[in-house]
Write a structure and sequence with these properties.
mainly beta
Amino acid sequence: MSLWQTRVEGLPTELAVIYRSEAGGWQYNHHQGIVWFDGRFFASWSSAQVYEDSSSQLVRFATSEDGRTWSPDAILAPDHDGPDGPGFQSACGFWQRDGILYGLAGYSAGLYSKEEDIDRGHKHVLWEAYRWTGRDWEQAGTLQKDFWPNYGDGVRRLRSGRYLVAGHDLKMNPVVLVGGQGGLDDWHRVALNLPADGRLLIEPSWWEADDGIIHMLIRSHSYQLYYATSPDGGHSWTTPVPSGIPDAIAKVAVGKLSDGRVYLAGNSRPPQPAPGWPEQNVGGAGPGLGGHPGFLPRDPLTLSIAEDGRHFSRTWTLRTGLIPYRYPSSVRNNGYGYGFGYQYPSAIEHDGRLYIIHCVSQG
């Protein structure tokens, strides 16, 4: 099966900087999300003094009325146990419900080491909501335990009126939550079947077609995305299969535009090292991680469009070019991942434009 029949082109874009880190400060910045609410854009992202998932990590945000000029950053979700404790916060996008904006965060109590348990990353996770008061954020409660949403994608509404959020559990298996109409913690949890080839699947992103079928693309430990569908509002899913869509082993963002077309923002690139990239950044991540073949630089940042709502027939390069780490210590080089490139996009359509938020080499 393949959803990929594309030609690659350049596309003029406009670039705005939301936040730029400084040496010796909060050097790691990643997991960004974006939303339009009450006459302005809100952006959130994970921010740490050193590297990803380190003990100082918390969630920052900024706002903008036009998407070009952004406010100074401030804290959306603090690190509950401070920089000396093992816990940390990660940004998980936003949720608009009943005229209220919630900023979302995943609080992890810490990480298992490889020696403790190779199949688990986070020891314990609380998916939390913070309510926007019009001036700042106040904690609104825990939405779910031991569930990790797909970072900046946040919560979106289905045609039925229910809400859906996709992510994975602590065993790194894909999970979907459906509901959100009663209390903030009113969710039905659905685990997807694992693929026949045993690939590890995380960070799913989805769109709902006009016929009510929900389509999902999922990051895998291979150089392509996996694909699954749900015919009943997210309560059951087909077993994920390879999609044929190339990927650099990274998060993607998909969604349906107001004209019915479907977009895919990510790193759709063939599985070969890019010229000029250091060879040591294309290597295996070690055994026991779902057959991981090794990361590729997340370059270029691409945008693909499915005119028919399913088959991606046209792709544009949005940003490309060698961007080394600004701070070598900002990315944990532990065999699990590397941070070169333009990555982890999230996107929204507003007033006829598509806004794609992303980070540059996680700095």
